Recover the amino acids of this structure.
């Protein structure tokens, strides 16, 4: 596309030279201004259900900038939009190849399609004048109008940004003091490490599932645990413990929760290249650790 | 078409791991269904033995369903007998509806679809196939002009992961339903 623009620019220079036989700055300004407008075209979308629908894409054409998405989005519209028919009852015009087209909401006298439109889409009557300025009767056709969705990666970033992890609630056992040389159980209140959801305006959902936790224990130690640890209970199997070797009035620790993130559209998993795949949140906590005999003596 | 099918079965039977979805993108080049794979693959000498295994029969029917689907789309014919022979409700209805919607717009899908199918479950009466299929070279054509229509894949890649259910029917299998599993 850039190359096409360069060619257009060179062409502009050439025309300028031929017409004026001199390089006049004003001429370039005039050329640029004529290209600086907006045009629209219909972009076909291949849907997951193998239907084709169309979305309207409008492109601002500024000199020296790429025109926009798609091959038809070069430096100029593909049809003679300025020769579009005038008169009431027509919406705005766009290009479909060389034809000038518009959408009509009023279908009379055309019969609507027998086939119901798939969910989220609707039938529209498209009128196209095959060669713009030559007018004549327009060719009618029904097209499926698709939702104008933002690219999935943009939606994914929005959905991810709407993931709001709850505050981490740290528990440990022993509850009051850790005890030197005895494993201290570490866990998160189950509610503070559960599934979290966020969604985009279009309904793409970011689903964050608890993966694991990394506990900095404040004594230079670090423990990685699957999930958020196991609440202490008689007979329970610990899944996340740390054993302190020295007593301290206060160990300042942190716990980092990590969620695996995937994306879903209408309940179906969607792989989106480049979308964030993990969510983390770090919470501080503190614990006093005592020698066992001191604690026993205190009781 | 027959040759393509046989190549598919050979590849699927010989390298089940290849069927796993989301593998390295390089696998795509050698996928069954693409003209390149069909022309460059070795002669399908393993066809006879592969065809006798139940999985190969399921995969053969599954890919046969796609052949019928592609043929019905090419012909813009939702009533194509081959499609009705390869699919049953509700899948048949879904496929026919999509063809009718495209036909109303004067659009027909033409080209090839590539696959990485894998039989994930099978019993005497039913089977499931998971596939990572690629429709990016199954492009819409304006039926009136025969011109290709410049198209954007809705999910960006045109590669979809899906689970298909097949039901035994007579001597073969028919595709009865599909569940979308996202991209791949």
């Amino acid at each position: 596309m850039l190359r096409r623009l360069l060619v257009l620019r060179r062409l502009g220079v050439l025309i300028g030279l031929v017409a004026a036989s001199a390089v006049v700055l004003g001429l370039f300004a005039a050329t640029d201004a004529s290209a600086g407008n907006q045009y629209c075209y219909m972009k076909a979308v291949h849907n997951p259900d193998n239907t084709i629908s169309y979305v309207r894409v409008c492109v601002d054409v500024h000199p020296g900038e790429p025109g926009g998405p798609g091959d038809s989005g070069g430096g100029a519209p593909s049809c003679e939009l300025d020769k579009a028919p005038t008169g009431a009852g027509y919406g705005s015009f766009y290009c479909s190849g060389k034809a000038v087209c518009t959408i009509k909401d009023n279908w009379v006298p055309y019969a609507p399609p027998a086939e119901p439109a798939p969910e989220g889409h609707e039938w529209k009557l498209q009128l196209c004048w095959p060669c713009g300025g030559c007018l004549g009767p327009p060719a009618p056709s029904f097209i499926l109008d698709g939702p104008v969705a933002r690219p999935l990666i943009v939606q994914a970033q929005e959905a991810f940004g709407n993931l709001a992890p709850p505050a981490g609630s740290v528990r440990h056992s022993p509850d009051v003091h850790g005890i030197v040389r005895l494993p201290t159980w570490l866990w998160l209140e189950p509610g503070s490490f559960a599934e979290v959801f966020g969604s985009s305006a279009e309904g793409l959902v970011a689903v964050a599932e608890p993966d694991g936790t990394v506990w900095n224990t404040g004594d230079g130690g670090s423990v990685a645990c699957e999930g958020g640890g196991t609440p202490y209970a008689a007979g329970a199997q610990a899944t996340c413990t740390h054993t302190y070797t020295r007593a301290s009035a206060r160990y300042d620790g942190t716990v980092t929760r990590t969620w695996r993130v995937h994306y879903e559209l209408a309940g179906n998993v969607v792989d989106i290249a480049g979308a964030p795949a993990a969510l983390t949140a770090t919470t501080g906590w503190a614990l006093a650790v005592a020698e066992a005999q001191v604690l026993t003596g205190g009781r | 078409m027959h040759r393509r099918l046989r190549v598919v079965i050979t590849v699927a039977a010989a390298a089940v791991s290849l069927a796993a979805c989301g593998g390295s993108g390089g696998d795509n080049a050698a996928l069954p269904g693409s003209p390149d794979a069909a022309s460059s693959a070795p002669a399908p000498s393993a066809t006879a033995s592969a065809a006798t295994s139940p999985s190969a029969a399921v995969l053969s029917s599954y890919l046969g369903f796609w052949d019928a689907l592609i043929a019905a789309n090419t012909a813009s014919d939702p009533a194509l007998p081959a499609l009705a022979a390869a699919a049953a409700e509700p899948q048949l209805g879904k496929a026919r509806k999509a063809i009718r919607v495209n036909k109303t717009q004067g659009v027909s899908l033409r080209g090839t679809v590539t696959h990485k199918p894998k039989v994930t479950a099978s019993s005497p009466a039913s089977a499931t196939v998971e596939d990572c299929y690629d429709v990016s070279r199954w492009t819409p054509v304006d039926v009136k002009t025969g011109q290709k229509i410049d198209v954007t894949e809705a999910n960006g890649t045109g590669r979809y992961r899906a689970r298909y259910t097949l039901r035994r029917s007579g001597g073969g299998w028919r595709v009865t339903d599909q569940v979308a599993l996202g991209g791949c």
Summary: The two ends of chain B are 26 Å apart (CA to CA). Residues 62 and 106 of chain B are 28 Å apart (CA to CA).
